[in-house]
Amino acid sequence: MIKPEAQINIKNLRLRTYIGFNDSEKQNKQDVVINAWIHYPASQAYDTDNVDNAVNYRTICKKMIAHTENNRFLLLEKLTADLLELCMEPSNVTFAKVEVAKPHALRFADSVSLTLSANREN
């Protein structure tokens, strides 16, 4: 019997927040682009067609938006780790990965980004 694992992808969530430690970064919101990958066993969800057996990506996304927009961060590491923790909150999530990019943070680059991932320990 096949037991596929679902992978939810939140792609290019574009938000604005205070991120950085330079004076201009502390005083002006900057754009960030967030990508998240969330894995969970899908068999219960598709067998029952019951939303309670799935991971609610809308709830996770709303939490990510609120956390990003309502806080200040010195480092990409902190924001990314916080968002990863939000993705891992549902108990049926087995793996999550979050990438946060700061467009135009470097003079000749499109963006700079940081990626963190986590596995659920059994």
TrEMBL record:
Q: Which InterPro entries match?
A: Dihydroneopterin_aldolase, FolB_dom, GTP-CH-I_C/QueF
This protein's source sits in the domain of life called: Bacteria
What catalytic activity is recorded?
7,8-dihydroneopterin 3'-triphosphate = 7,8-dihydromonapterin 3'-triphosphate
Q: List GO BP terms, alphabetically.
A: folic acid-containing compound metabolic process
Entry keyword set: Isomerase
User: Which EC number(s) does the record attach to this protein?
Assistant: 5.1.99.7
Pfam families documented for this protein: FolB
GO CC terms in record: cytosol
Q: Name one GO molecular function term.
A: dihydroneopterin aldolase activity
Q: Which residues form the Dihydroneopterin aldolase/epimerase domain?
A: 8-118
The family database entries (PANTHER family) matched by this protein are listed as: DIHYDRONEOPTERIN ALDOLASE 1-RELATED, DIHYDRONEOPTERIN TRIPHOSPHATE 2'-EPIMERASE
NCBIfam families cross-referenced by the UniProt entry: folB_dom, PRK11245.1
What protein family is recorded?
A: Belongs to the DHNA family.
Record's protein name: Dihydroneopterin triphosphate 2'-epimerase
**Gene for this protein?**
folX
